[in-house]
Amino acid sequence: MLFSGIPFLFYFLPLVLVIYFAVPRGGKNAVLLLSSLFFYGWGEPKFLFFMLAAILQGYLLAILIEKAKREYPGGKRSKVFLAASVALSLGLLGYCKYADFFITNFNALTGLSLPLLKIALPIGISFYTFQIMSYVVDVYRGEVKAQRSLIDFGAYVAFFPQLIAGPIVRYADIEADLKDRRHTVEGTAAGVRRFGIGLGKKVLLANQLAELAAHFNAAEEKSLLFYWLYAAATMLYIYFDFSGYSDMAIGLGRIFCFRFPENFNYPYISGSITEFWRRWHMTLGGWFRDYLYIPLGGNRKGQGRRLFNIFIVWAATGLWHGAAWNFAAWGLMFAVLLMLEKLWLPDVLQNKMFGLGVLRHVYVLVAVAVSFVLFDAADMAAAADIIIAMFGGAGVPAVDELSLYYLQSYGLILLLAVVGATPVPARIVADLGRKKAMAPLMAVAEPLFVLGLLVVCTAFLIDGSFNPFLYFRF
Amino acid sequence: MSENVSENKVDGLTEFKSWATLTLAAVFVFGFAVGGLLLPDSEVSSAERRPLAQMPELSIKTVLNGQFMGDFDAYSLDQFPLRDDFRGIKAAVAAALGRQDNNGIYAAGEHLAALEYPYDAESVRYAAGRMQYVYRQYLAAGGGKVYLSIVPDKGYFLAGESGRPALDYQALAADMQEGLPFAEYIDIFGELTAADYYYTDAHWRQENLLPVAEKLAEGLGVKLSAEYECREAEQPFYGVYAGQYALPHGADTLRWLTNEQLAAMTVYDYESQGYLPVYDESKLDGDDSYEMYLGGPKSLLVLENPAAESDRELIVFRDSFGSSLVPLLAEAYAKITLVDIRYVSPAFLGSFMQFDGQDVLFLYSTGVLNNSITIK
User: N or C terminus of chain B: which is more exposed, having fewer CB within 10 Å?
Assistant: First the structure.
């Protein structure tokens, strides 16, 4: 079930809200767990077993880790339980997501023809296995206490707002909310507002721009302008799709009185790739930093080891997004850029000289555009063809009638998306809200804006069949 | 957990804003949720001219294999309350955002037209292949003359002028001629302009088709001389694009050309095994008034002209454009057989028809040739 779908918006969500607010407080987490299992099972009932097994192992092994640490302090038993849980999580992820990738490459290397397992990837598996791993590691580190209630733990892992597209919520982030939540009208309204904005980002911007990318892929003639329109549309639709889902998740969390971490912070205004990754998919970056980069030694073991750690983390980041070489290349491209920035470009990136600031932004935008062409392409060869053509290597005309048509048809949406990817709209709204004279107008305009978004998004969902789900590979 | 505890320092405006946000959102979501459950389901969408998805069957099997969920998604979209109004809102917002077409339908002056792009050479090859099959199977032995003519969709006249991407019509015509080397090509592109098509529909206006009919007749080696009376439907005609475009648009007026000779002709319909009028005025009250020409989509019709001065016969393999054109050729033939191989497989034609040297015309529109998956 998708947040940006009629069954979710007009059947599932209203029903869950009615039941959730009708049951006494002691039953609310059970409602969240059961509704989340229904939500997950709606699309793929058979994959419920994978998730339930993952929940069960995380729940039991965390308790065993805690018990072992308490009863055998300094002993190896807790480490064994930790290793078992991590192995089970990675094993499940590896089996479902990477088995065929490895078999394909093994066959290519050896000339053998081992049959593929052809396992359909359970949606959201990369998110919930990472949440379980972070929880188990945090219990091992003593940073959180093991959850004794299977219902509460299940509700944490399976909680539908963040189940299939993040943000990756750590147990510590919502431990207190799982126990005690204070529902307020203001909090719930803020959640509705955030959900509406996320829905608007997904339906009105991401879906439209993804349509432009689809037109590019279907076109028989392509000009240089069309290649760059595609690159711009792709980097913007991926951003608005992903950050839109995050906004919807955060908004839904607030409606149920949970505070999820932020996942995006205007990444396209970054002046370096290092800054970009501090602003893009922040919960994933934070996860890899805390559970992979730092345990590997981070930057504490010399320059060579640091570069090796960066390489490992970014290869893993790439492959986390999809089991294909273009995803690995996408991650490694960022590894190379980050190494360059850390080793050779720190002076340039910090230099305040006039004009360099603009160049830094151009560098980030071009690098990210190229990276998302790699990300979006069917395979490495297709990505290479597009990237070569973007830089004039395909001998295509600069402009043709078709690209001008699509520029005309999507120009305003692209412009709105570019402005929407900066903090400017939020700043304008905040400034207006601070002006006393404008406050009454804003108090009326804001609810109407949210209603308008819901109406228009519903209209686009009803009329348009183009509502892709990006996260099938995650 | 304590419920509905207001934060302490909430000013009046914030409280108003929060309550207003919640109330408006709740009324909208719950209102349409309840409406969707209570309102009766519709069978068809007259605006979109298609059947609407119905409530899927709920069973353990359909739930476990995911079919119920997929079908329910389609059902919830199709049966959403005020669906056509929401489609209108979407079209208006898309236009305000600068979109040059809505679901592939665009407005060019008073015309609504469909984007027909890009040129699908494979589709055209497939269509030509099916016609080659017909030729090999039935026509080659008979020795009759075979002709090919292509009806341009109105994008030929409107797309380029209005800055929309246009099909490569030259390539399409060339590929069809190459694919049907046994057929003599009759080019009618020059006999048409945008004004010869309805504003809201894909089809051409019969009252403007006499030059096309004459060009075809010349190619077919027959002469036309009939005079016609032009009749006009009282009902407004909203063509197929009017509903798909989803924004308000003026209606067309549907007209037809008739005379005593046409009125005396008989049309036998193999599907219903009965006779139809050449112009079925009862269809003017239906969803698609254009179906009044030869009864609309029909797989196999035989039009007989008792007043014919010769015994020449013609077989027309055609799509819906042929329905309004063929009556204008009828005076020159004793019998015209109309075959639509989108509705009947050519493999079965031998059971219904005899091929013994009649003239044969393949008359297809660019829209069907470029999307030939419907041809059997």
Answer: C
List A residues 30-69 in contact with B (Cβ-Cβ < 8 A).
42-46
**Cβ contacts from A onto B, under 8 A:** 169
Torsion of CA A215, A216, A218, A220, to 10 degrees: 130
3-state secondary structure of A423: coil
Q: Determine the distance in angstroms separating the CA of A363 from the nearest CA of chain B, rounded to an integer.
A: 30
Residue B112 falls inside a structural domain:
no
- Residue A352, exposed/middle/buried by CB under 10 A (0-12, 13-18, 19+)? exposed
The verdict on a CB contact (< 8 Å) between A456 and B89 is: yes
- Omega prior to B118 cis, within 30 of 0: yes
SS3 B188: coil
Is-contact B325 B279, C-beta < 8 A?
A: no
Helices vs. strands in chain A: H and E counts, helices first: 23, 0
A215 has catalytic annotation: no
Number of structural domains found in chain A: 2
Q: Does B174 lie in the same domain as B103?
A: no
Query: In whole angstroms, what is the distance from residue B247 CA to residue A331 CA?
Result: 46
pTM over 0.90: no
Judge contact between B215 and B191, C-beta under 8 A.
Answer: yes
Residues of B within 8 A of A10 (CB-CB) are: 29, 32-33, 36, 76, 80
pLDDT in tens, B86-107: 999 999 999 999 999 998 899 9
Domain that holds residue B69: 12-107
Chain A hits for B76, CB-CB cut-off 8 Å, are: 6-7, 10-11
Which three-class secondary structure state does DSSP give residue B102? strand
Compute the distance between CA of residue A370 and CA of residue A234 in angstroms, rounded to an integer.
10
Inter-chain touch A25–B63, beta carbons under 8 Å = no
Residues A256 and A398 in one domain: yes
B284 and B356 fall within a common domain: yes
Active-site residue among A183, A215, A321, A361?
A: A321
